[in-house]
Amino acid sequence: MDGKVTIGRTAGLYIGAAVLRLAIFTLLPGIPDLLTGRVEISTPVTSFKRLQEGLFLYNHNVSPYDGGVYHQAPLFLPLFSLLPNASSYPIFTYLLYIAVDLLSAGALWKIADSGETVASALFTSPRKEKRWNGFIIAAVFLFNPFTVATCIGRSTSVFTTCAILHAIAKAVSGAPFSAMVAITFAGYLSLYPLLLLPPLVLLCYDRQRIERGIKSVIPFVATNIAVVAGIMGLLFGMSYLITGSWEFLTSTYGVQLTLSDLTPNVGLWWYFFIEMFDSFRSFFLGVFWLHLSCYVGGLTVRIRQQPLVVLTLLLGIFGIFKPYPSISDTSLFLALVPLYRHVFPLMRYTFVIAAVIMYATFLGPAFYYLWIYAGSGNANFFYAITLVWNLGQSLLVCDLMFAVLRDEWEVERPEMAGKEIRQI
Amino acid sequence: MPSLQTFNTTRARSYVFRLPLFTRIVLLAITIFWLVGLQSAFDLRQWGALIPKEMGLGTLYRMNTFPFIHLNVWHAVMNVVTIVPLLERFEGEYGTLNCLGLFFGPLTTIPAVLYVVVERIMGLNTAVMGASMWVFTLIGIEAMRAYRHNPTFVLAGYGIPTWSTPIGILFVVAALVPGSSFLGHAAGLAVGYAAGRGLLKYLAPPEKIARWIEGKLNLLGRLPHYVSIDQKTYGRFGVLPSSHAGPGAGGGVPLGPIGTSALALRRDPRMLKLPPYISLLCILVGAVWLFLLPLNEYSRRTYISENALLPGQVHTYFGGSDQNVFRAYKHETNSLIGKTNTEINDKLEDIVRGLGLKTARQNFTYKAAGRVFEGENLYAILQAPRSDATEAIVLVAAWENVKGEINRSGVPLTLTLARYFKRWSLWSKDIIVLFSPDSIAGPQAWVDAYHDAHDTRRVASLGIKSGALQGAIAIDYAQEQRFQSIHVVYDGVNGQLPNLDLINSVVNIAGGQMGMGVAIQEMWTHDDRYPDRLRTMLRGMLKQGVGLASGAHSGFIPYHVDAVTLRPFGEGWQDEMAMGRVVEGTFRSLNNLLEHLHQSFFFYLLMQKERFVSIGTYLPSAMLVAANFTIMAIFLWMKSGQPVSGKETCSETQQPAVERELFLPIGVVILCQTISAIPLYLFNHVPESTLTPLFIAFLIFNTILPLLISSLLPTSSTTQQQYSLIKSFSLLLLGMFLSSLATLNFSLSMLIGLLSAPLSFVRPFPSNIPARISTFILLNLISPAAVLLGSAAYWQTSITKILSEAAVAWHVCGTWSAVVVWCVWWPAWLAGCVVVLGRPVEEEEQKEKKA
């Protein structure tokens, strides 16, 4: 790979990605609606159809949360009501989604070019020569079928993806304030990104410490948290002004916290909570959320030297264990994984992971079809395949973690490089 | 200590049998005290526990009894499980005599005194008992020992001393185990730490004396399992042979026995030769499995699963004067032959209106293969007198059947039945009578529109509707004379099948109640022996695999509406009234349904009207065939990671996996998958007249394309590894598609799997040119295009007809067999051809070039 990336190639990549999406939108008019209805892409908290419903209510001066269909952030409503009607002039919506994808790719490009993955403030990988440039990383993201499908399905999770990627990009470029603003937006849109705050603050801190010589971590953390709280307050205030009540808190974050909508998705929660007796519900909600958030502390401490690794692994874990995951979360994780090209040779199960994820990708819709349409299967078919899907993802998370730790370990013990070891 | 990975029963047994003496004594004492504690006359626990307030000179015995007494059996079991490995280790190192001295002396009394003193100071009086104090003492000693070897472990850059782990255990136990004594455990641990620091040697009985006792009494000779003090000199780990590889060997982290053997197995060169044979075995077993299915041992008799159906349990009254009505209607319909669709519908609508049914019409226009299928459906709804319109059953009579014969008796029979049904008051479901101009497009348009899944540009919406469709029966009765048997056609679009209960009901009513013959899969005679069963099954599989609509019922099945077509055949003495009674009986059964047909099977292969195999029995054969591709894909991936010059390297040296060059293989496979859209689009969108020239052009293109792709690959740098990877990825995709497909359309998956089985075994022939050419020719003989040509020749139809049928099915019914052929099978075949034609360079050659 030559390192040179000309403006022509950059433009070519972006134009190519935009044209591909636009072509699917316009030439295959059935596809967007088909994908919008797929449970793998649209969850109750990201569905474009539900957004339309909320928008309709909002434009008719009814509270968008009436009827219990719309569970997304209130600020989407003024944004989408600025656009012409999505059913009569869909092109504007398409352009918005394409632009968001390109923005995400731009942020990813910046992260890749910063070289944070191979040489963070506290750790420099011995394999740092071997990495992909921003062009390849952005291309892998933009032409990943999962990303394309999410964009075509117009899931609102693309906005969260974009915000998270920008938060990381700002953090690695040493702009903690912008990073905090971006992560707050992500957290405002879908709550779970707030869990990324600890590693993100550490990433900002590491970057700042070199450049500005900040000594103490406590005031730095406190300032950043104050920024997040302030921006969040601002966003909540604006939401309150738009909807006129605090109802949106329970309808958006409340739904995520209590899983009141049990529409099937690729995650692990819905089936459990369908089966569960009501008396155990709140206990297990607590357990599931605790489980989701307990990774944050452990990983942040264990891989303190490379906060971006923590962010990547956490995004992978959230894609598996969050209440309403979709392939959009997987696409975000898969967007960050190529940044670790230098540790790919240390990964052990790449083929198995690829095979498992691909098998699940094809069997999932087939089993969903058998369950919902053909009627010859049942919910267990689809749930079994989501288990396989999540197994594939968790294998990838584990394997990446193993590779990164092994990379660190070989710095500590250079004599062990290349030898076979076993985790115990 | 046995770790989980090395656990096996023989080892565990031998471990138990090798337990040393003092450990056994402790175990025995704990057991005896537990048994004694079972009785209620004497309160053992009150007698023996360590109770601070009770301690005095006379009760000092408590200091030695409390570790053996437990609260209950669980307490005892838990403590035994934890203490045995620790104590065994300790005894092995210090000798039985020392153990005895220590554990009946300082190691028990000191923590006990410590505990009592602290309790007294704090003014508490908590009784403690159990061996867990010893456990903590021993853990403390172990931890100090570990600390000496390995002072810290690093967590996030902070060195944490290893001796601190027992404290963690202490807190976890205190938090998780109810009723555990934190203070007692802490006292034990403190003594353990002190002992581990080296104080143990002051506590232990003087070595000289111990040796003297041991020697005088010849304890080693007299007592079984006695551990001598002498062993302590070396410690048993230094002297005794052990199964573990020493940690020093190679300076690496030791691997457990399982780990090493698995790795050794993986590196064994024989392992790499095995998968192709496994793969071949999978194909053979899969194929043989299929041929076993018709045997009595593997197939089952059909049975009615849904008890509500009660087939053949009602009297059928159709007949008598209805015969005259039928003749009149037949006269009317005969006069319509040759008229236009609209004229026919006008007349029929007139008749049906006259019966008092609501009618409506629906227009549809389909364009496929340059032909236009248009027409007008006429349908009427007989409203159920006994219910609201929530459910309905459909009676379909197409004006023409699939062969283009006019449904001369079917249409008048349907009219007669409609008139007859109208007179009954027992219907709990609406009955919809549908007259469509043809057998494929008309019913499809109607059922699409009924479920609002139609394209409004081509198919009009329905004017009136009823409830959810519960079943449909199509009558295909072109024959004018009396018939002998009924042919049940049940294949749906894309190989979907109606619920087996529906077929069983029809077989039961026609064969059992009415006493007429029933045939399936055009097996006009069937002797219910192996060859006929096999033939029926294979015909069924072929039809299922092709996935075309086989009658007016086919369009209903994708909407989960169970449907069959009934076609009388043969010369016999059954008349139209008998046929009508079969329909009446079936409708009465469907009318009984309380819920949608769901009890019986949706996936089955019928091999006789009353014999079937269910999915559980037949699916493994298709899955085995699909698995063969996956096995080969994984094998090739593993092989591609092995260094090429593998002969000299022995398995001892560890070889890191070779870096794989992935871009070219992935590119080739993606290219093959992408260009597969071209034949799919072309064959579905060109007019019928150009299909034959297009097919010939495609045949030529098909032969040249692999040559073209393989000549485009850079011959100077494409290695054997890259060809292996091309094949690996292509087979992985094929295996994946086929196993997904097997759940949807078993027969198609099986068919494609068997036809592309040779692709598992192709490989490049770098130097052997004749082999390369002959393999390529052989591969060309099983190319999708060649197979199409061959099947056209076998069934004596033209290739144009096959292709235009496929295009019509694609556009009208949404059959996706074409997708499977062109986008699954063809790319895999293409990649296989590229591999065969490949001329990989040798590794050394490449290295030389680079140098």
Can you put this structure into words, describing what you see?
- The complex is a heterodimer of chains A (424) and B (851).
- With 424 residues, chain A is mainly alpha-helical.
- Chain A has one domain.
- Helix content of chain A is 69%, strand content 0%.
- Chain A is built from 18 helices and no strands.
- Chain A is globular.
- The mean pLDDT of chain A is 90.
- With 851 residues, chain B is of the alpha/beta class.
- Chain B folds into three domains: 238 residues, Up-down Bundle (Rhomboid-like fold); 303 residues, Aminopeptidase (3-Layer(aba) Sandwich); 219 residues, no CATH class.
- Helix content of chain B is 54%, strand content 10%.
- In chain B, strands 4-5-7-6-8-11-9-10 form an eight-stranded mixed beta sheet, with helices on both faces.
- Chain B is elongated, with a radius of gyration of 41 Å.
- The two termini of chain B are 54 Å apart.
- About 4% of the residues of chain B have low confidence.
- Chains A and B meet through helix 17 of A and helix 24 and helix 28 of B.
What would a concise description of this structure say?
Chain A has 424 residues and is mostly helical. Chain A is 69% helix and 0% strand.
Order of helices and strands of chain A: HHHHHHHHHHHHHHHHHH
The largest inter-chain interface, given as chain pair and residues per side, is: A-B, 29 and 34 residues
Proportion of beta-strand residues of chain B: 5-15%
The CATH topology of the largest domain in chain B: Aminopeptidase
Unreliable parts of chain B: 233-260, 646-655
**Binned strand content of chain A:** under 5%
